[in-house]
Design a protein that fits this description.
The protein has helices spanning about 10-15, 75-85, 125-135, 145-155, 160-175; strands at about 5, 20-40, 50-70, 90-100, 105-115, 135-140, 140. By secondary structure, the chain is of the alpha+beta class. It has a five-stranded mixed beta barrel. It has a two-stranded antiparallel ribbon with strand order 6-7. Keywords: Lyase.
Length: about 180
């Protein structure tokens, strides 16, 4: 049985594991947003950045990518993803049904934000998000680089996210 992973942020452009297939997919009941403070990868304890997370909302859907893990790499991939995504326990690992662009329905390992975690910051105004993203840097680099990479790769796939597009333009202006 194929192991699927749902990507909506950095997994879109930097999955870090061998793929058998990559397909546009829709996840119902969640939306992509900069609702998690990053104190490791894109910020620090002293100057937290923001990273994307899936925030639960029954009326929303998130367009992203379904990543089929290469045969035989399932255990190593799950270990890798847990080390990467569960670094501070702000994400919860769930197995959720997604709909692939070709009509198939599959279950995918999906990392969603824990709204009760101290790093959760849902509801921040876009201007505040832009200010934070423009100033933070963490262990994996500047926060704005994460935003630019994610927005560009989603756009290349034909996935348009109005908030990410606005944030990209605003952060570029703030950094100019």
């Amino acid at each position: 049985m194929t192991m699927w992973v749902f990507g909506y942020g950095s997994l879109v452009w930097n999955p870090g594991f061998d793929l058998r297939e990559k397909v546009i997919a829709t996840l119902p009941g969640y939306h992509r947003s900069f609702c998690m403070r990053s104190i490791h990868h894109r910020g620090t304890d002293e100057n937290p950045g923001l990273v994307l997370a899936l925030d639960e909302d029954a009326h929303s859907t998130c367009l992203g990518v379904a990543l089929a893990v290469a045969d035989g790499a399932e255990d190593a991939t799950l270990d890798y993803l847990r080390e990467r995504e569960l670094i501070s326990s702000a994400y919860l690992e769930k197995h959720l049904e997604i709909r692939l662009a070709d009509g198939r329905h599959v279950e995918a390992v999906t990392y969603v934000v824990d709204p009760h975690h101290v790093q959760y910051c849902g509801g921040l105004a876009l201007e505040e998000q832009a200010r934070i993203i423009s100033q933070a840097t963490g262990g994996r680099g500047p926060n704005d680089e994460y935003l630019y990479n994610t927005a560009a790769h989603l756009s290349e796939l034909g996935i348009h996210d109005n908030d990410l597009e606005w944030l990209t333009a605003r952060v570029r202006a703030l950094r100019a």
